[in-house]
């Protein structure tokens, strides 16, 4: 039985819908190997779609967010999730940095309105607004991302294949959006012991019900996303040139003229404007102070902005970077499938950012990208600042070793990185997808939810979720996965999975119509095979005899579709109690009761009502024998029994007839059987 989950990632620049799917744990564990049983549930990404703008932009027009924003995403989700699965599918809307910057009263108004709209316009599971529709902290976002990265890379399920030394097998996680940046990693044993109070305890559950626990550090830097960092940089230029109308900007190509918010300018402007100078070295120097490295550190050690982070052991801590870390390294300055290395990256940045803007506009390769001309131009205008900010954050802020520079070990930079292997030894590697699945923090939330559906292997099994690192028990701030264990006897049948696949084929209007054509094709083939009356009678008769001989419960209603499609309009006698009234002998399509009344004597298998015997079937087709024929050469039944002869069937009162009369035309002595 398939399970589904829907998450809306409400970021600062837009909202992205994710629809995930996984097998019920009982069905998944049925034929699983020992290794698979010690693994987390396998989750697949079914759908991903982003729309603009971010939900925070509706702060002054709250009532419009439902119809103008959420409805489009609801429609996409309903197209993807089978109709009968919707009432058992949870939906989450989790807002990040864009909403964190709003005052509390605007946050509450937006959250309440969005929850009300989602409840009124969909039947997804949404029992609690506070847990399903919320603004999550940067620490939580980073923790979900850490779970997603290690889930996809294999750090959880196959630790021996990811041994980084010192009994360490997980990967660190770096995320940068428009407004904030996150870090999450498991420190080495020494740092974990030294800073145990600063760690989060993450508890999940494998398919066999065994627990999987990890201790992780996570932190966020609000205002350190690419867009907010750019705003802070422009503010620093205004302060540095208070009396200037044209502010020189080394982080833009030469000759590029924009407003302070980044809009291009062709003519004159009464307001201060930015003039690109294309001096990238100066850009790096002027963006460095934005890191806040000089701020006091109250809890040593600190990395950025005076915030505490345990010391990172880069011998074992290998980081994956997503979002802006990927887009800024693989957009304008790097091919989508090229492995990243700092030396090549900096050369590409220097070459681009020192060019004249007019030349860049005339000779862009951006036409190959799936964006509008305005989006492409905007990306090009912002590219140099984002590159300088990424370099400063990674190497001067977080401290990633400068591989390929300053004596660092050279990476295998020529390797094709299109498939993203499930493991790497570099200190840092940007990624967007792993084996076709987008590396998003939302996946981490769904991993916890699916793991929470697995019953614990012991009665004292602790709940799935995360919270403060405590020695035992459940911490007070523990955040539950949001799901409850599903009993092992539910959803474990293969038929359920088949039904789900069939439902997916027929119920998803957004998918291919090949399922409908396949169904029609099958019907046409059956119509061709059964087009001749004698072939239909032979096949249907064989099917009935096979079913009867195996002790199955036969229902002529099961053939009603075939009757209508292929013109088969036959009637059968209903078995009745021998002491019943003659009026009980009726023609019609009825259910057999062979399973409920099984006679063992040979006499009971002889036809008493019609004088015809039911053939005995020993399991071989070639042993089937037709009953004595009561048909004339034209194929029509000849009614030979008299009403008096039928009455003889009442002699053996209390016994039940086991026979069914052969196919025949209706008798004037019998009335049609009314279906229930």
TrEMBL record:
Listed Acidic residues bias regions: 494-504, 585-597
Statement: the UniProt record of this protein carries the keyword Membrane: yes
InterPro entries: GDA1_CD39_NTPase
Region (Disordered): 473-507, 585-676
This protein's UniProt keywords: ATP-binding, Hydrolase, Membrane, Nucleotide-binding, Transmembrane, Transmembrane helix
Tree of life domain: Eukaryota
Coiled coil: none
Amino acids binding ATP: 178-182
Any one of the GO BP annotations: UDP catabolic process
Transmembrane regions listed in the UniProt entry: 513-530
GO cellular component, one term: membrane
Active-site positions on this chain: 141 (proton acceptor)
Similarity comment text for this entry: Belongs to the GDA1/CD39 NTPase family.
Protein name: Golgi apyrase
């Amino acid at each position: 039985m398939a399970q589904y989950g829907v998450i809306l990632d409400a970021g600062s620049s837009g909202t992205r819908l994710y629809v995930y799917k996984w097998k019920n744990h009982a069905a998944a564990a049925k034929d699983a190997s020992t290794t698979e049983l010690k693994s987390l549930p396998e989750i697949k990404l079914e759908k991903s779609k982003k729309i603009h703008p971010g939900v925070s932009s509706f702060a002054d027009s709250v009532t419009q967010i439902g119809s103008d924003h959420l409805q489009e995403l609801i429609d996409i989700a309903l197209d993807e999730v089978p109709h009968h699965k919707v009432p058992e599918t949870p939906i989450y809307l989790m807002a990040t940095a864009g909403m964190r910057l709003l005052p509390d009263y605007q946050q509450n108004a937006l959250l309440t309105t969005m929850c009300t709209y989602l409840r009124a316009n969909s039947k997804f599971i949404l029992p609690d607004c506070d847990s399903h529709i919320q603004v999550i902290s940067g620490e939580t976002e980073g923790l979900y991302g850490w779970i997603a990265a290690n889930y996809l890379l294999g750090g959880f399920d196959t630790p021996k294949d990811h041994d980084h030394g010192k009994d360490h097998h997980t990967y660190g996680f770096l995320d940068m959006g428009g407004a904030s940046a996150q870090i999450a990693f498991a420190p080495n044993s020494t740092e974990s012991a030294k800073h145990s109070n600063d760690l989060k305890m993450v508890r999940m559950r494998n398919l066999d019900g065994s627990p999987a626990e990890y201790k992780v550090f996570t932190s966020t830097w609000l205002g350190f996303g690419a867009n907010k960092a750019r705003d802070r940089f422009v503010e620093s230029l205004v302060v540095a040139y208070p009396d200037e109308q044209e502010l020189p900007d080394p982080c833009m190509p030469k000759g590029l003229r924009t407003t302070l918010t980044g809009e291009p300018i062709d003519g004159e402007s009464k307001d201060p404007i930015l003039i690109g100078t294309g001096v990238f070295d100066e850009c790096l120097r002027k963006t460095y102070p934005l890191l806040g490295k000089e701020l006091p550190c109250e809890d040593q050690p600190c990395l950025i902005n005076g915030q505490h982070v345990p010391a990172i052991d880069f011998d074992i801590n290998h980081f994956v970077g997503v979002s802006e870390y990927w887009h800024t390294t693989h957009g304008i300055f790097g091919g989508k499938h090229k492995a990243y290395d700092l030396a090549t990256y900096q050369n590409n940045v220097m070459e681009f950012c020192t060019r004249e803007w007019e030349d860049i506009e005339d000779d862009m390769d951006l036409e190959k990208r799936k964006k509008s001309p305005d989006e492409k131009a905007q990306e090009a205008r912002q590219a140099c600042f984002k590159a300088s900010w990424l370099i400063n954050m990674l190497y001067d802020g977080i401290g990633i070793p400068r591989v390929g520079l300053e004596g660092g070990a050279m990476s295998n930079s020529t390797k094709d990185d299109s498939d993203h292997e499930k493991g790497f030894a570099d200190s840092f590697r940007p990624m967007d997808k792993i084996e076709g699945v987008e590396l998003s923090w939302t996946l981490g939330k769904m991993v916890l939810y699916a793991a929470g559906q697995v019953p614990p292997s012991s009665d004292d099994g602790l709940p799935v979720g995360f919270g403060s690192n405590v020695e035992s028990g459940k911490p007070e701030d523990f955040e539950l996965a949001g799901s409850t264990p599903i009993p092992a006897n539910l959803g474990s049948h293969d038929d359920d999975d088949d039904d789900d696949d069939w439902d997916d084929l027929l119920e998803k209007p957004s998918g291919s119509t090949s399922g409908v054509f396949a169904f029609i094709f099958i019907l046409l083939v059956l119509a061709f095979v059964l087009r001749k009356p004698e072939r239909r009678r032979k096949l249907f008769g064989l099917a009935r005899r096979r079913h009867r001989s195996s002790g199955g419960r036969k229902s002529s209603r099961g053939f009603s579709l075939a009757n209508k499609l292929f013109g088969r309009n036959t009637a059968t006698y209903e078995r009745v109690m021998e002491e019943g009234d003659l009026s009980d002998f009726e023609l019609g399509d009825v259910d057999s009761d062979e399973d409920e009344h099984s006679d063992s004597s040979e006499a009971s298998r002889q036809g008493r009502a019609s004088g015809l015997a039911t053939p005995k079937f020993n399991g071989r087709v070639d042993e089937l024998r037709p009953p004595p024929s009561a048909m004339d050469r034209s194929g029509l039944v000849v009614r030979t029994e008299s009403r008096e002869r039928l009455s003889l069937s009442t002699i053996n009162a209390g016994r039940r007839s086991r026979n069914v009369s052969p196919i025949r035309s209706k008798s004037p002595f019998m009335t049609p059987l009314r279906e229930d």
